[in-house]
Amino acid sequence: MTRSLAGAHVDPRFIFANEQHAPGVKSHGAENVEIVRLAHEALNGGDLDALIALCDAKFRLDMSDRVFNPAVYEGYDGIRIFYSEVCDVWASYVWEPEALMEASDSVVALLRSRGRGRGSGVEVERHTAMVWTVRAGRATAVCFFRDRDRALEAVGRIQTLASEAPSSRARDAD
Predict the structure, then answer these.
(1) H-type helices in 54-147, by residue range?
(2) Which of 94, 73, 98, 85 is CA-nearest to residue 5?
(3) Shortest CA distance to 137 belongs to which of 25, 55, 51, 69?
(4) Dihedral sign, CA of 93, 147, 63, 65?
(5) What are the phi and psi torsion angles at 24 (to 5°)?
(6) Cα–Cα distance, 3 to 169 (Å, whole number)
(7) pLDDT tens, 9-20?
(8) pLDDT per residue as tens digits for the range 42-59
(9) Cβ count within 10 A of residue 53
């Protein structure tokens, strides 16, 4: 049985908003951005089969920046375990993209995260981020950040490392 956290729909008006939040990170309608948009739509709608269909078998979900129960989840089983844990604690929870911005093979999702506690009924809302890695049309990893600026800094470091890496041609010439 699939449990739905919210059944929320990701509003496409938010996908390319707020480019000023990410200097040097482009925002355009690329395939990777669409994959991440679909992943959030599936996650927020409780459609784990659709989410898993977008992910690589070795998918890595890094939630180590969470305040409560930081963890890293691996593979399709990891996705299911993560979602089950969220459903155990929250009556509803959504990660609503306010902006999706592509940077090389990463997509930064600036999120409005909202939830209502299962037992307490307490409602929470905060602005967070996820950095998705997409390769060959499949999501291979996602890393959660409580602080949006830290997510953008992480993507900047990834881009810097990639630009500093010697090209394969230069390596082959040695």
Answers:
(1) 75-89
(2) 94
(3) 55
(4) negative
(5) 85, -5
(6) 50
(7) 333 333 333 333
(8) 999 999 999 999 999 999
(9) 13
H or E stretch at 125 = strand 123-135
Tokens 């959660």 identify what position?
A: 144
Integer Cα distance of 75 and 95 in angstroms: 20
Radius of gyration (C-alpha) of the chain in whole angstroms: 17
Core vs surface per residue 145-163: b (16+ CB within 10 A) or e: beebeebbebbeebeeeee
As given in the structure block, the two tokens for residue 84 are 């089950």
- As given in the structure block, the two tokens for residue 53 are 């269909």
Q: Return the domain boundaries, the chain.
A: 12-173
Query: Residue 32: how many CA atoms within 13 Å on its side-chain side?
Result: 23
* Bridge pairing between strands 106-117 and 55-62: unpaired
Q: What single letter denotes the amino acid at residue 143?
A: C
pTM of this prediction? 0.75
- Which DSSP state fits 18? -
Say which CATH architecture domain 12-173 belongs to. Roll (3.10)
